Amino acid sequence: MTETAGARAGARKTSGKGVKVERIYTTPGVHPYDEVNWEKRDVVQQNWKTGETIFEQRGVEFPDFWSVNASTIVTTKYFRGALGTEAREQGLKQLIDRVVLTYVKAGKDHGYFANAEDAEIFEHELTYALLHQVFSFNSPVWFNVGTKSPQQVSACFILAVDDSMDSILNWYKEEGKIFQGGSGAGLNLSRIRSSKELLSSGGTASGPVSFMRGADASAGTIKSGGATRRAAKMVVLDVDHPDIMEFVETKAREEDKIRALRDAGFDMDLGGKDITSVQYQNANNSVRVSDEFMKAVEAGTDFGLRSRTTGEVIDTVDARELFRKLAEAAWECADPGIQYDDVINDWHTNPETGRITASNPCSEYMSLDNSSCNLASLNLLKFLKDDDTFDAKKFQQVAELVITAMDISICFADFPTEAIGKTTVDYRQLGIGYANLGALLMATGHGYDSEGGRSLAAAITSLLTGAAYKRSAELAGVVGAYAGYARNADAHKRVMRKHQSANDAIRTLDTMDTAIHRAATKAWDDVVKVGEKNGYRNAQASVLAPTGTIGFMMDCDTTGIEPDFSLVKFKKLVGGGSMQIVNLTIPRALKKLGYTGETIEAIVEYIADKGHVIDAPGLKTEHYEIFDTAMGARSIEAMGHVRMMAAVQPFLSGAISKTVNLPENATVEEIEDVHMQGWKMGLKAIAVYRDNCKVGQPLSDGGSTAKDAAASKDSAAAEAKVEKVIEYRPVRKRLPKRRTSQTTSFAVGGAEGYLTAGTYESGDLGEIFLKFGKQGSTLAGVMDAFSIAVSIGLQYGVPLETFVEKFTNLRFEPAGLTDDPDVRMAQSIMDYVFRRLALDHMDFDTRSFMGIHTAAERARQLETGSYTAIEADTESDEELEDELENFSQSAPVSKPAAAASTPAVEGKALDADAVKSGAGAASAREVSVEVHSSAELLEKFQGISADAPMCMTCGTKMRPAGSCYVCEGCGSTSGCS
Prior knowledge:
alpha/beta, ten-stranded mixed beta sheet, 40% helix, nucleotide binding, ribonucleoside-diphosphate reductase activity, thioredoxin disulfide as acceptor
């Protein structure tokens, strides 16, 4: 990382006064930590597939109202210091203090506070808001601030590349440094001349798509280097680039390759060992379209493609045909997305410095080349009061507090390159946003795809950005406007008036959005008035990010702008175990709609059984839309998502990280309509995802493509034909093309190795692979040959016990102690391998006859005299449900700091959140051992597989969050901040 001198200087210009810091939640003389109850928890995280413990830290301290999931994710992701050492953070207090005190010190050093009292109020309010999950900074703040590491606070970066080999190679280098830190970057390749143009030497240029291969390979190599997420990148190409058709079809062609390789038996699942052979899989692609192009599509005329060096038209395409190709490619593989160039730059506050040409990987941050943006998101549900009114005053106060802290961070932040550091310090782009919009709309009785829902969302977003720019103007009067403001003053003020005008156009429908809109109108009046006098501290203020990991930190039901994923959630419990919990906002929404206690009970009971509200007893059909979700029986239609994005877009400095999900049977024409309507409604960017369009995902119908079906039919016919031939010789039973396998690492006498065992669908062993560390090519070849020989033997029907009998007790070096508790000593590597295979794949009686037992079985024999397990008495499902019926029927929704008494099932304390919904026993039920996330719980209700990848850390099925995926098990994301 490169420390930027300008960042340290931080524009110390002051006027002898500080920004006014108000008390919002805290009491003078009382520290926020003293107002909550603290408890010690053990955080143990396992990969449920392998059973391997991937993290363990015991006795960590958290408030009692924090969920198990939130404390687990914060401990594993954000606590710093080596495990088992005194340097390791032991509780939430240390984490929050590390960050907050760094911000307070920088605020004092750079003249943000008028006096010590303001600084103390700032410290206490920031601490309270983080402690009570009112908001959260983006992940890099938690990773880096207050540590000895470079204090990078930004998750979003935009790079630049010019039409020269030096610039292209520098692009590879800068992108790699960003990936190394676990962040992502985007850039526009349109300056690189096309493959239809000549080089100065007379040869033909390679074109940007060619150079994308090298960058993609680099990202694929570095992607595992980040602390919490894989490398994420965005590649943009202008629609008038001569290579646009090749760019559009790039990933669709690779998807065809993936299908062909999968059908040939290669492992092409996301994370599979063979997927790395496919190109362009580490980036999101987007086409930058202009109004000129979109109008040509409407008119059905030709569109000119321009030389990168001269700007003249060197080729033409049919605009509708190219637009169709865009939709077809998105239909096939979800790429490319669309970015609307003229809309983006019409809302640009710094056009005199340069155009906005690219975005970050998730398309919410759009600003100058070589810039960065740090993010923070407010938890909207924290501002919904007990009387179901939205506290607009506190919302504005918190927004002003958070934007102040975000600006302070630029004063001490480090950046990956000097160019990014200079641009960020000069323009100070910030990205305040929110999470839990979907939950807020449901709790207040608003349908996500309704006029009332959109009006409320628009008013909230307008107030958020208005409050942020109001504070930015006030900060400019204290510590100075951003360095690039003077040359862009007219443009910046023009954009502020555009926001204000959009706010005036909001049509409110009820008392809630009217009150919020009134506050927003006042805020925008102050923005224009104070900004005219002081200028602005920040070139940008707001975006809507995915809020993946930080959404879990805040215990949010929904991420970013997204609707609720499903009506029934998977929830971990204090003391262990898990429950399916009916969405906690449903009873509150039903109460607001006028339903009584018994009817609410019946509806929630129905949802717990069915996972949806269709035909729920006593529920009016006109209220169904309030409970529509992203997935499930009543999923929100594609244009419902587009309309919500359009409602809030005019009130954001940047854009929105969101993917419009479409069902598998969606047509290319529907995607064309989404792209066209996104432009007409004034969006800055849009991306679509059609269920099951990518091979590297679990299939949503649990079945196969037409090609798979045909192959299966041919295979069945071939097998039937074989069965009619009487042959007195063994017949080889090959493993299916896609099979389950398990890899075990082991050490015998200091020699390390890996054993991979593949199985048939029945679970019978069908193949093995042996690899040893630090081996020569000769031994590697011998082990490969040995593995093939044993595998073929197994497939021809040689019983596993025969191999176990022949290879156990073989004596040769290396031999001795192992790291396997079930096989503590081995006389050779072969002795260990086949004992391990026996334990994993042979029945108890057979291996017991051979004297092969697990550690638990040997311990049992010492205690009871028998290796055989004694089956424990277990309660029936009916008995368990009877106990659940004893839960409190209407536990009140208390403030976060309040201690809640929680009932227990089988000695396990149930989270207060699990029963505070007022739904009684219907809202909490045990889930089967096969369910590990809300996505898998939804599969249980739907009877089909969710089209989402598995987490590479803990094996849990992820769920959508913005334009990426997030894991409920460990908080990992597929590339977003």
